[in-house]
Specification:
Keywords: FAD, Flavoprotein, NAD, Nucleotide-binding
Structural class: alpha/beta
Shape: globular
Largest sheet: 7 strands, mixed
CATH topology of the largest domain: FAD/NAD(P)-binding domain
Mean pLDDT: 96
Strand content: 15-25%
GO molecular function: flavin adenine dinucleotide binding; NAD(P)H dehydrogenase (quinone) activity
Family: Belongs to the class-I pyridine nucleotide-disulfide oxidoreductase family.
Oligomer: single chain
Pfam families: Pyr_redox_2, Pyr_redox_dim
Distance between the termini: 68 Å
CATH architecture of the largest domain: 3-Layer(bba) Sandwich
Protein name: Dihydrolipoamide dehydrogenase
Number of helices: 15
Helix content: 25-40%
Low-confidence stretches: none
Length: 464
C-alpha cells in the first residue's frame, strides 16, 4: 500500500529541507526523501567544508598584514588542525543533527533513492533494495541538486580525479595539485590547499581570465592574489589527455600546447550538471538529464495539474545554495496557497567568493546590464579611499563598483573586493532588491571609521 502525504520532497539538501520545513510548518503532512546525508552537498562537500578550509588561511593572511601581529605569525599554518576543524564543521560526515531537526519539524524522513513513478507518486528504493511508494495529495517537490561535471577528456574519468567532494574532504595535503577550471570552486580550493602547505598548485583555465562572470576588476584582483600566494595560474590552457595507471599514483596531464604536467592529484572544477538522470522525469512527460524548467511560482512547466515543483540547482535557474533556499521557501508558500513569484534569482542574486581578498557581488554586472539594453552608468572607487580600510592593516588592495540604472536612479548591481567584504554585501543586496533610490541612500549614513564609509565615496563619485 502507498503511504499518503500532503507533500513529498525528493532531496534533503538545503533546498529540500527548506521546502519541507515550510510546508510542515504550515500544517501539511510532509515526507522528505534523501539517499545520502540530510543537509546535502552544501553541508558536507561544498559550502561548509570549503569555508572551513579557507577561514584559517584568511585569518593568517589578515594577521600578516597587521603591524605588531605579523611578527608573531611567522610560522606556517598547522594543516592537521585546519583539517580537524573541517571535520568538526561537517560533524564527521554524520547527519544525526539534521535528522533531529527534521523530527522537531514534524517531517517524516524516508531514506533511499526517490524517483517519480507517475503523477503525484514517488517510489523510494532503500540500500537493501526494498521499495516504498509514497503518494502526494497536494504536491511533489524535486530538490535533487547537481553534481560535478566531468568532461569527456581521454583518461580523465579513469584517473579518478577529485571533484568538490574530494577537494573539500581530503584527509591530507597533496604535494602537487592541478586544478582544472577557473570558477569559484577552482579559485577557492587552489588558494586553500596552497595555504595549507601544498608545494605546487597549478590552476588551468581555458579562457583568458578566471572568474569570467565577475566584474573584470574583481577577477583581476583575485587572480593577482592567487599568484602572490604561490598558485601558478595558467590561462588559455586546456587539458587534452590524462594518464594515471589504475587510478592511483602520479597523474600526467597533456596540455593543448603539447606540454605535460605531473601531479599527485587533479581537481576537476568545470561546472555542475543537474541531478535529473534517474529521478523518473520520463514518467511525467519530462526529459531526464535536463534541468526541470519552472515558472516563477516554481511549478514544473509541461506537467498537467501544477502539482510538481522544482527548486534549487535542479531547475537550472541559479546554482547557489542561498538562492535554492530562497526558491524553496517560495515553493513551500505557494504549495500552501500563497502566490509569490520568484524574481531575486534573476535580478538580485548575492554571492560571496571566500578567497582572500574576498569578493562580494549582487545583481547585474555592467556587461549584463548593457546586454539587457538598460541605461547604465557605473561608478568605481578604491577601498583605500576610506580610513577604515587602513585600520585593517597594510598592503590591502580592493575596490567597489556600482552599476546604476541612470533612468530610474536605482542600483542594478554592486561588486566589492577586499578583506571581509562579504559582511558588507547585504546592504547592497537590500538596495538592489528594494530598488532604493540613490537620493535615499545619501541619507543612509555609514558609521566612521567603518569600511562601509565607502558608500559615501561612491555616491560622491556619482555626483550626489
Amino acid at each position: 500500500m502507498a503511504d499518503a502525504f500532503d507533500v513529498v520532497v525528493i532531496g534533503g539538501g538545503p533546498a529540500g529541507e527548506n521546502a519541507a520545513g515550510r510546508t510542515a510548518a504550515g500544517g501539511l503532512a510532509t515526507a522528505l526523501v534523501e539517499t545520502e546525508l540530510l543537509g546535502g552537498e552544501c553541508s558536507y562537500w561544498a559550502c561548509i567544508p570549503s569555508k572551513a578550509l579557507l577561514r584559517p588561511p584568511e585569518v593568517h593572511w589578515l594577521a600578516r598584514h597587521s603591524p605588531g601581529v605579523r611578527e608573531a605569525v611567522k610560522k606556517p599554518l598547522d594543516a592537521s588542525e585546519v583539517l580537524a576543524f573541517r571535520d568538526k564543521m561537517v560533524h564527521g560526515y554524520d547527519d544525526k543533527g539534521q535528522a533531529e531537526w527534521a523530527r522537531h519539524a514534524k517531517l517524516e524522513v524516508v531514506r533511499g533513492h526517490g524517483r517519480l513513478a507517475g503523477p503525484r507518486t514517488v517510489r523510494v528504493t532503500s540500500r537493501d533494495g526494498a521499495t516504498r511508494e509514497l503518494t502526494a495529495r497536494r504536491a511533489v517537490v524535486l530538490a535533487t541538486g547537481s553534481r560535478a561535471r566531468i568532461p569527456d577528456i581521454p583518461g580523465l574519468r579513469e584517473a579518478k580525479p577529485w571533484t568538490n567532494r574530494e577537494g573539500t574532504g581530503a584527509g591530507k595535503v597533496p604535494r602537487r595539485l592541478v586544478v582544472m577550471g577557473g570558477g569559484v570552486v577552482a579559485a577557492e580550493l587552489s588558494q586553500a590547499w596552497k595555504s595549507l602547505g601544498a608545494e605546487e598548485v597549478t590552476l588551468l583555465q581555458r579562457s583568458e581570465h578566471i572568474l569570467t562572470r565577475l566584474e573584470p576588476f574583481a577577477a583581476e584582483l583575485v587572480e593577482k592574489a592567487l599568484r602572490e600566494s604561490g598558485v601558478t595560474v595558467r590561462t588559455r590552457t586546456q587539458v587534452t589527455r590524462v594518464h594515471r595507471p589504475g587510478g592511483q599514483g602520479e597523474v600526467t596531464l597533456t596540455l593543448d600546447s603539447g606540454e605535460t604536467l605531473r601531479a599527485d592529484e587533479v581537481l576537476v572544477a568545470l561546472g555542475r550538471e543537474v541531478a535529473t538522470r534517474d529521478v523518473g522525469l520520463e514518467t511525467v512527460g519530462l526529459t531526464p538529464g535536463k534541468p526541470v524548467e519552472v515558472d516563477d511560482l516554481l511549478r514544473a512547466r509541461g506537467v498537467e495539474g501544477g502539482w510538481l515543483y522544482a527548486c534549487g540547482d535542479v531547475n537550472g535557474r541559479n546554482l547557489l545554495t542561498h538562492m535554492g533556499k530562497y526558491q524553496a521557501r517560495l515553493a513551500g508558500d505557494n504549495i500552501l496557497g500563497r502566490q509569490e513569484e520568484a524574481w531575486a534569482d534573476a535580478r538580485a542574486t548575492p554571492q560571496v567568493i571566500f578567497t582572500h581578498p574576498q569578493v562580494g557581488a549582487v545583481g547585474l554586472t555592467e556587461a549584463e546590464a548593457r546586454e539587457r539594453g538598460l541605461p547604465v552608468r557605473t561608478v568605481q572607487v578604491g577601498l583605500d579611499s576610506v580610513a577604515g580600510t587602513s585600520l585593517l592593516g597594510q598592503g590591502f588592495e580592493g575596490g567597489v563598483k556600482l552599476v546604476v540604472d541612470e533612468q530610474r536612479r536605482v542600483l542594478l548591481g554592486a561588486t566589492f573586493v577586499g578583506p571581509g567584504v562579504g559582511e558588507m554585501l547585504h546592504a547592497a543586496t537590500i538596495a538592489v532588491a528594494g530598488e532604493v533610490p540613490l537620493d535615499k541612500l545619501w541619507h543612509a549614513v555609514p558609521a566612521f571609521p567603518a569600511v562601509s564609509e565607502v558608500w559615501l565615496r561612491l555616491l560622491e563619485a556619482y555626483g550626489l
